[in-house]
Each structure stands twice: as structure tokens, then as C-alpha cells.
Design brief:
Elements (H helix, E strand, L loop, with lengths): L3 H35 L6 H9 L3 H13 L3 H8 L1
Helix pairs in contact: 1-3, 3-4
Length: 81
């Protein structure tokens, strides 16, 4: 039978694993966007900073689509506001 501290430890481990998975997914999303933008040339510092700091998966998904369709940094800016 598990004692209470083991239950809390197990819950903490699961929570930590979930947070790690979420952070990994955010990192991967950001990296793909930056990879696509690099194909357009040097990434301006403001765009680079915004992508690296973004935490919302829906925003990153929108930016991914914009980066995949953009033919210039200016086009990317227009599509992402």
C-alpha cells in the first residue's frame, strides 16, 4: 500500500513529465518556424525574439502556417500582425 508522500511524489513526477512534454512541443514549434524563416534570409531580431518568447501553441501554429506560405519577411510580418 502506498503512503501519502508516495502519492504526492508520483503526482509531482507526472506533472513534471507533462510540463516537459509541453515545453518540448513549444520548443519544436518555435524551431520549425525559425527554420522556415531562415530560408527567407536573416531573421530580424524582433521576429526572432517574438518567436522564442511565444508560449501560446495556437499562435505558434498560426505563425507556422504564415512562415510556410511567406515569400519574404515582410509577407510573414503582414500575415502575423
Amino acid at each position: 500500500m502506498c503512503n501519502l508522500s508516495e502519492v504526492f511524489i508520483e503526482k509531482g513526477i507526472r506533472k513534471g513529465m507533462q510540463q516537459g512534454i509541453q515545453q518540448g512541443a513549444l520548443y519544436q514549434s518555435r524551431q520549425v518556424i525559425l527554420d522556415l524563416l531562415e530560408d527567407l534570409g536573416d531573421i530580424p531580431e524582433d521576429i526572432l525574439s517574438a518567436v522564442r518568447q511565444e508560449e501560446d501553441p495556437n499562435t505558434l501554429r498560426k505563425w507556422y502556417k504564415a512562415a510556410a506560405r511567406a515569400d519574404s519577411m515582410e509577407a510573414f510580418r503582414e500575415k502575423t500582425g
